[in-house]
Each structure stands twice: as C-alpha cells, then as structure tokens.
Amino acid sequence: MLCVVAAGAQSEALAITGIVLVVLGGWAVSLCLHEFGHAIVAYRGGDTSVAQKGYLTLDFRRYTDVGYSFVLPLIILLIGGIPLPGGAVWINHWAIRSRAWRSAMSVAGPAMNLLLGIVLTALVITVSMPLVLAAALSALALFQVIAFVLNILPIPGLDGYGALEPYLPASAQRLGQQVRPWAPLVLLGLILFVPGVSSAFFSGALSLFGAVGGDTALASTGYSALFFWR
After folding, report:
1. Which of 54-68, 80-94, 135-149, 153-167 has the lowest mean pLDDT?
2. pLDDT score recorded for residue 27
3. What is the Cα–Cα distance from 63 to 28, expressed in whole angstroms?
4. What value does the mean pLDDT of the chain take?
C-alpha cells in the first residue's frame, strides 16, 4: 500500500499524516473556491451584495454557516468518502439580470472544482515531486472531480438543478423547492448504500478523472492513506 511510495527512512505513519493533512487542507481551500466561483459570477451578473457580505474575499469567516459549509462537508468526506460542497453564500437571485446569468452562477461552483482537479493533475504530471505528495495531490484531484460530478447532477438542492431551474415552469420550480431540503440526502444515501448506484456514480467520476489526465493508481494510494483506519 503506502510503503510503495514512502521513500527512504520516511515512515509509513509520517507519510499517511502528510497525505491526510494535504487532502483535508486542500479540500477546505477548495470549499472556499467553490463558493467564490458562485459569488464572483453572481456579482458580475448583477448581485453586488455579495461584495458587501465579503464573499469575494476568500475569507471563510464571511460565509453564512461555517459549520454547514466546512465542518459538515469534512465530516462527510471522512465518514463516507463523498466530497460534498456545503452551501455557504446567500445569493440575491432577483438582482441577477437574466436566467442565463443565474444558470452560470450555479454552474460556476462545480466548474471551479473541475478546474482545480485539472490543475492538480497537471501539477502531478508536469512537476517532479515525492511520490507521497503526488499521491496526496492525485487523491485531492479525484475528490475535486467527484465533487463536480456529484454537484452537477440535476437534483434539487444541487448546482446542476440550479442551472436548470430558471428555465423550468413555475409548477416544477415549486416542486423543486419542496424537495430541495432532503433530495441531496436521499441521493447521498443511494450512493453510499446502494451498490448499483454507487458503482455507476464512481465509474463515471473515475472515467472523467482519467480523461483529465488523472493517475488512478496514485489517487487510490492517497485515498487509502486518507482512510487508513478502514
């Protein structure tokens, strides 16, 4: 397992600790960038209140609910291995000038995750680094890709649905509002506990990860190190 990448006198325990810190720290930063993506597009689309609220500062203290936006996603990541971005910024949808801008605002968050995944895989490919660091960055990149695939699904409460919502009839929008609080939890339960759903979801995410240049072997090593107690 990790002993393959732990070089020289570096102990496996130290390597695991380093990978855990890199992945969890990187994921916390990516949560900020995900919400920043939403906020900057909302700002350009007409909602200037996001600047007044401090959402454009990348300061996590400015976000609406630190517990829901940071602590809960990290807990879900550690327990279930699912990188679920938490809702963090309040957007004044009525201030955004068009349906196209509202859709773009919703897509901007998961698009940021995908961009981060691509950047991280490019770093692993192009920059010479210790294999332990490469494993950590590959695992972090995989989580970014998984977060993109998960959050782009057209499920109420997720950004994929938010991109479609402005174009839906009023009746469909009302239904979406009703199921929004629990629909993502149902989806999460299906992914975690229904083997067919889980395999299809992760197969799609791994295919996209490979398509952007990700090294699945390195990512698997980093993933195993993050969940070393299993």
Report:
1. 54-68
2. 86
3. 13
4. 88
Are 55 and 39 in contact by the 8 Å Cβ rule? The answer is yes
Residue 82 C-alpha from the chain's centroid: 9
Euclidean distance between CA atoms 79 and 73, whole angstroms: 10
Residue with tokens 């938010």: 162
CA dist 20 and 63 (Å) reads 25
57-to-54, 111, 176 alpha-carbon distances in Å: 6, 19, 31
Tokens of 40: 């900057």
DSSP character at residue 129: -
- Span 6-13, mean pLDDT? 60
Q: Give the burial class of 9: count Cβ atoms within 10 A of its Cβ; 0-12 exposed, 13-18 middle, 19 or more buried.
A: exposed
- Distance of alpha carbon 35 from alpha carbon 85, whole angstroms: 9
Contact 112, 88 (CB under 8 A): no
CA distance to 13, 76, 154, per residue, from 171 (Å): 55, 33, 16
Which residue among the candidates 35, 47, 159, 165 is catalytic per the annotation?
35
Q: Among candidates 4, 21, 3, which has minimal Cα distance to 137?
A: 21
User: What would the pLDDT profile of 112-126 be if each residue is shown by its tens digit?
Assistant: 999 999 999 999 999
- pTM of full prediction above 0.85: yes
Q: Is 35 a catalytic residue?
A: yes
